[in-house]
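Section 5: illustrative case.
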């Protein structure tokens, strides 16, 4: 996303990147604000947005969610990869569906990272956004080195004329640990896609344009695959997964291999999806993969025939898992992107 670019979406939602001046004009009478990375827009974020929207409705003021691009982890570690649950575009799409009025995306750079809690509260909250109420999550940390906390914000609010409210944490049934982006990342990194789905309220997905690969699937193996590199988006451990693939608005079952292809002596990880019942050219198209279930770990086969036989079993397992997912009453809600 480019600086100073403004997006107008459905309803009254305004999504902007750096244009604090424009949004300040729109909020001339005040606002109700929350902010954070909102990575994943999980159940905790959704609950926070509900409190934010309700508070704004009670106060008769517009609601504003403030987030950042890039994710601070990517800014502080230029070599960081596979960290983000959602990219900025997906995050905004998910936030738009939560009934908020405005979503502001601020560039996270050295100057922003160096702001003190007071500078952020004065310049952004009380200044540009004219906040009358601020609603934050239970794990609030803001300002340089996350030095500001809830008590800091309350004190600043008394000085700058805004009230502060903390939204309750959300936990899954039978668990005590609050739903968080960190928890979602851990579930995905451990290959626990069911837990990740439960915390997100949807199936974790990645997307990218289909690129050319080694073409072994098309020729040698007889199982053509679509190869994508989702950049900084978080991936589960190496192995074979039952996925649902979305391309050109259509959904297809996809037996997906994530790994280095040890049977061919590979050492560079790749993400390749064999899409069932699909015909056509995928190169250059945006392909989204939803990780439904882990099927098996990556392994090295002694022969091509043994590998082909296993891929056939993977395809059969994938078809069954996807059919079960399609049969769920809440199917469409699990695949909102």
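Designed sequence:
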């Amino acid at each position: 996303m480019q600086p100073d670019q403004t997006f107008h979406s459905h309803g009254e939602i305004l999504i902007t990147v750096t244009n604090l001046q424009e949004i300040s004009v729109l909020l001339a009478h005040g606002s109700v604000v929350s902010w954070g990375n909102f990575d994943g827009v999980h159940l905790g974020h959704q609950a926070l947005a509900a409190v934010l929207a309700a508070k704004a409705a009670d106060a008769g003021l517009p609601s504003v969610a403030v987030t950042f691009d890039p994710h601070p982890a990517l800014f502080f570690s230029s070599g960081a990869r596979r960290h983000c649950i959602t990219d900025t575009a997906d995050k905004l799409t998910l936030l738009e569906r939560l009934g908020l009025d405005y979503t502001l995306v601020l560039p996270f750079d050295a100057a922003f990272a160096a702001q003190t809690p007071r500078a952020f509260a004065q310049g952004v909250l009380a200044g540009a956004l004219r906040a009358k109420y601020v609603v934050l999550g239970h794990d609030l940390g803001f300002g340089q080195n996350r030095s500001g906390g809830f008590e800091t914000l309350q004190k600043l609010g008394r000085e700058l004329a805004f009230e502060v409210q903390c939204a309750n944490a959300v936990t899954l049934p039978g668990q005590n640990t609050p739903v968080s982006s960190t928890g979602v990342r851990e579930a995905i990194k451990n290959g626990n896609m069911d837990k990740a789905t439960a915390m997100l309220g949807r199936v974790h997905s990645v997307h990218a344009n289909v690129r050319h690969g080694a073409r072994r699937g098309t020729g040698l193996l007889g199982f053509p695959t679509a190869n994508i590199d989702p950049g900084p988006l978080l991936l589960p451990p190496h192995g074979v997964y039952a996925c649902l693939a979305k391309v050109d608005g259509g959904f297809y079952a996809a037996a997906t291999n994530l790994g280095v292809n040890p049977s061919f002596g590979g050492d560079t990880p790749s993400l390749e999806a064999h899409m069932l019942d699909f015909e056509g050219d995928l190169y250059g198209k945006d392909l989204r993969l939803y990780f439904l279930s882990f099927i098996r770990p990556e392994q090295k086969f002694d022969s091509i025939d043994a590998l082909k036989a296993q891929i056939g079993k993977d395809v059969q397992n994938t078809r069954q898992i996807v059919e079960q997912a399609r049969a769920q009453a809440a199917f469409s809600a699990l695949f909102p992107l």
